[in-house]
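User: Please predict the structure of the protein below. I'd like the answer in C-alpha cell form so I can feed it into my own downstream comparison script.

Assistant: Understood. Taking the following sequence of 163 residues as input:
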Amino acid sequence: MKKGAYILLIVLGFSCKRESNKAPLFEAADIDYETVIESNTLELSEINSYETLSIEKLKEYFDLVKLKNQHTKFNEDITLQLKNYTSENLIDFKLSERGEIENVRQIGEIQKISDSLSRIQLEFNITFDNTRFKDFVFAYITSKTVLIDGGKLKSNKVRFSRE
C-alpha cells in the first residue's frame, strides 16, 4: 500500500513540473497594447455618446413641455419630471402642438469640469407658429460608475442650464 502511495506522489510531482515549464499564452506587452487601444476607443465613443445623450434629453425636455401645455390635468406630474432636467425655465413661451425643436447640434468642444462633470453647449432652432427662434443651452453631464452584480456600469445624468 505504501509503495502505491509513493508511486502516485512521484507521478503527480512529475506532471505538475511538466505543466509549469509550458510557455505563457500571452505576453505582458500584448495585453498592455490592447488596453491602450481600448481606452482610446472608449474616450472617442464617450464623447459621441455625451453629445447624443444630451440631444436626446433636450428633445425629451421639449416634448414634456409640449405635453404639459396640451394636457393641463397632468400639470403637477409633468412639472416634477421637468425638474429632473433643469431647475430653471428654459422656455418662456408656450409651445403649441405645432411647435418643434430642430437642428440640434453641439457648439465647440466638450469641457471637462472635473472627473465626473462635463459641459456641452447645444444650439437649436425652435419653430413656433411660422416663426423660427435660434437658441442655445448648456448640458451638464454627471458621470459615475455603479457596481451592479459585480460588473461596473457607467451612469450618466444630464441637466440643462442657461449658464
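That's the full C-alpha cell string. The first strand starts at residue 100 and ends at 112.
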